[in-house]
Amino acid sequence: MCVKANEIVTIAGTNGAGKSTLIKAVMGLLPRVQGAMQFNGTDLIGLPVEDRIGIGISYVPQVHNVFSTLTVHENLQVVEQVARLNARIEQMYELFPALAGRRRTYACNLSGGERQQLAFARALMPSPRLMLLDEPSAALSPALTNQVFAEVERLPSIGVAVLMVEQRARHALMFSDRGYILDSGRIVLADTGENLLANKEMADLYIGTCGATHSDGASA
Questions:
Q1: Nearest of 200, 93, 193 to residue 149 by alpha carbon
Q2: Among 76, 94, 73, CA closest to 85
Q3: Domain 1-56+128-220, second-level architecture
Q4: Residue pLDDT, tens place only, 124-143
Q5: Where in the chain is the domain with CATH 3.40.50.300?
Q6: Residue 39: strand pairing partners
């Protein structure tokens, strides 16, 4: 499995296939990982999470991806102080104008879409080259899912590649450059997003018929 520069790659598969486990392994959140894993020539096996962040990998978990009791601005300040960054907060407000107007709002009072924007902004603060996303549309309405996916789609335009696990796999594969289908932790098929969707037998077996969220807000 590989992710090229400025590419969106979606991992699909049934529940329990190992999709989120794979994302966590790349981020270094699992205690023991065997095999080979590299990022821009750096061996990741045994590399601490903070060092992975330092070489350009970021992660947005499915839950607990912002501090609910802090304001938008405070959430960004935490990352700025821990990572010893300069002038990145204002850049995040430029990337996510909706957050600029909500900077004094506590994260617990944000809408689902705004909360995900804040999670993305926090993950972008260290200027990553690869963003790992674990179910970014989880618990969101079809309309908010469209908003979040629009944010995912524009990440390559700012130099960030994406490796994403997504429950609405059909929708995600529509804008993904490539995709992988996992079954019991093993890759059973790899192809472009378009070709995976066109493979009806495999799509019905591993992707299902749900999750194709359309721009008109309907959910198929």
A1: 193
A2: 76
A3: 3-Layer(aba) Sandwich (3.40)
A4: 999 999 999 999 998 888 89
A5: 1-56+128-220
A6: 42
